[in-house]
Amino acid sequence: MSSPSENSSALNLPVKEIPGSYGLPFFGPIKDRIDFYYNQGPEEFFRARMKKYNSTVFRVNSPPGPFNAKDSKVIVLLDAVSFPILFDTSKVEKRNVFIGTFMPSTNFTGGYRICAYLDPSEPKHTTLKGFYLSLLDKLHKELIPTFCSSVSNLFTDLENELSKNGEANFNAISDKMSFDFLFRLFANKSSYDTIIGGNGNTNLDRWLFFQLAPLITLGLKFLPNWLEDLLLHTFPLPYFPVKSGYERVHAALRTAAAALLDEAEKQGLNRDEATHNLLFLTGFNTYGGAKVVFPALLKYIGTAGESLHHRLAEEIRSVVKEEGGVTLAGLNKMSLTKSVVWEALRIEPPVPFQYAKAKEEIKIKSHDAAYVIKKGETICGYQPFATRDPKVFENPDEFVAERFVGEGEKMIKYVYWSNGRETEDPTAENKQCPAREMVVMMLRMMAVEFFLRYDTFSVETGRLLLGSSVTFKSVTKATKQLFIN
Ligand code: HEM
């Protein structure tokens, strides 16, 4: 929620009509979609309109439009002040808007509307989110040992690939590690020891792609834009091609996570519905998120160069030595490491879009004007602009490793990656990611494990369907080994 001072100062700003237009029915949304994917790309799509209307709040059609979304008209928010209205569930509804103006068929999720698609006013949201919050609370202590053991496999894979090929694709290695880590965390067993063997994550990749296709461009030179647009963005993709993979992971999880599902039943959840929710939690929320956040962190640390690597290594090794190992208390003492993680989440928020519908007439404000949003209108926040707002952050497009150190830590209230402020906590009544703390901890642990093992490393980076690609070119093993853990 916006702070009281932000709300009260909205009263003094001039109320302006929201600029922008939706164009002709059907053709307007298609034109905006083509601009978004092919003529301009997301950044330029928003930047050009922000300039044209001289406003960070305006009307436009959000992709994908027909025939995936019934209504693609949205009010876009692009600044740090207006954006947090999306978190205020007393004023906005979050029903079925988890990934945008469309929702994939519930065939992808066992016939159920999963927690992420429920509004907090729906009683099932409270039950499911409450279950997740208590689960994460219980798993808190197991996070570090489980992560450390999964990550040691990641390093083995990374070093083997580097010595074999002279470079290593971090994304593939990280995906494999993330999936197995989650399986171990939620099911207390390695996925390799189940019927899915080492292929769990590739089953999920296909399942994720079929749900997210309307939001993706492949960028293939041999595929004409019109054909890609027709195949990916125009009609919902069916479930049957990914059915067998989904069912395999579902069966493995149903058996391996039996104890957890017993607990869910005790909390009043239907066992079958709880299993599909747990799979979505593992495969979409967490694995989908991890696919993006780990490479982004390594990209920014990797390209920042040796001087940052030395400072991080020094901080991490001295705290770990003092604590006698990697501990939660120790992770909290690492101010540069913490700052680097928040900065990566700020500069490249892993989930760039957030959507909501106004429950009532709402008055919102940007830096320089107030606007009225009518009941039922859809709001779309494009987060990379809100967290790179030049009126809030100096050099907003630059990765500044120490941005959140010391006094700078106050600025984490403008880091919104979790669909909430970094200073606020998820509850059963709001729509903030229940794993806000866990994700930040996982990223800190990734940085810690890297600099316990290596002095420095070099990477090459690029873009993928979801997030950044990171290829390791070299690693320099730590000269002074810390014999801990
Ligand atoms: C790994 C990186 C992760 C990222 C980047 C991420 C991001 C997000 C975001 C942005 C939302 C809000 C979406 C919206 O409604 O607009 C969300 C919701 C959610 N996330 Fe995460 N998440 C991550 C990990 C996790 C993990 C580890 C869990 C659970 C163990 C989790 C469970 C959920 C659930 C259940 C929701 C829906 C919350 C609700 O309905 O109130 N996420 N996540």
TrEMBL record:
Record-linked InterPro entries: Cyt_P450, Cyt_P450_E_grp-IV, Cyt_P450_sf
Keywords: Heme, Iron, Lyase, Metal-binding
Domain of life: Eukaryota
Cofactor(s) of this protein: heme
A single GO BP: fatty acid metabolic process
Single GO molecular function: iron ion binding
Protein name in the entry: Hydroperoxide dehydratase
